């Protein structure tokens, strides 16, 4: 199975598979989702914005996600992972509060603190660079759903098969280009998968 050269190529290919909708709101999940979403908007049009999300990490090993939170939404937890670790949502309340503060900082950084555009009654496309556990995408989709859009599409270049199946109950449509059986991490399906900075995100938004 071929790799995407980078997120820009993946976004251009993804745009070809998206349904035609009129004046969508394209919400990119930073940071990597922004690099995918820019070529999507260039091809299909619409309004591009950043929907800020944050992973909720396991305190002794923060890189291990046990949940996620999106602006405007409540924390969403991977209950299987919490159970495996012997944790409850209350046990990571301090982590949630810390991530809320970082989420607010990023909203200020990426959008100058301005609110998201109104989503009620509109076509919304949520874009990320891939789906591993899906907990971040789930948090984003639930926050979007609370704003009562007409329809929500989740669009990603690559995702784990089980996660993609789960996401079909969270969005009206899921568009994904690759669902490899040997999926281990999002980055393995990109030839170039650099970690992006806040400055990279701002530069992408300026050049959209």
UniProtKB/TrEMBL annotation:
The Phosphoribosyltransferase domain, residue ranges: 22-169
Keywords associated with the record: Glycosyltransferase, Transferase
GO MF, one example: glycosyltransferase activity
One Pfam family, short name: Pribosyltran
Alphabetized SUPFAM superfamilies for the sequence: PRTase-like
Protein name listed in UniProt: Phosphoribosyltransferase
Protein's organism: Nonomuraea spiralis
InterPro entries (UniProt xref): PRTase-like, PRTase_dom
């Amino acid at each position: 199975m071929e790799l995407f050269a980078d997120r820009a190529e993946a976004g251009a290919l993804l745009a070809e598979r998206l349904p035609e909708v009129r004046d969508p709101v394209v919400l990119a999940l930073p940071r990597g989702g922004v690099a995918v979403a820019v070529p999507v908007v260039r091809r299909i049009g619409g309004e591009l914005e950043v929907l800020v999300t944050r992973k909720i990490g396991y305190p002794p090993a923060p890189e291990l996600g046990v949940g996620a939170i999106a602006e405007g939404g409540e924390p969403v937890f991977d209950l299987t992972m919490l159970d495996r670790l012997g944790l409850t949502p209350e046990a990571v309340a301090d982590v949630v509060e810390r991530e809320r503060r970082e989420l607010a900082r990023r909203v200020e950084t990426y959008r100058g603190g301005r609110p998201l555009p109104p989503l009620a009654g509109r076509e919304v496309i949520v874009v990320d660079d891939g789906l591993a556990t899906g907990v971040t995408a789930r948090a984003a989709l639930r926050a979007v759903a609370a704003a009562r859009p007409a329809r929500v599409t989740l669009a990603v270049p690559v995702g784990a098969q089980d996660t993609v199946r789960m996401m079909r109950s969270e969005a009206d449509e899921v568009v994904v280009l690759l669902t490899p059986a040997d999926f281990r991490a999002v980055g393995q399906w990109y030839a170039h998968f650099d970690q992006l900075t806040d400055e990279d995100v701002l530069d992408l938004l300026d050049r959209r």
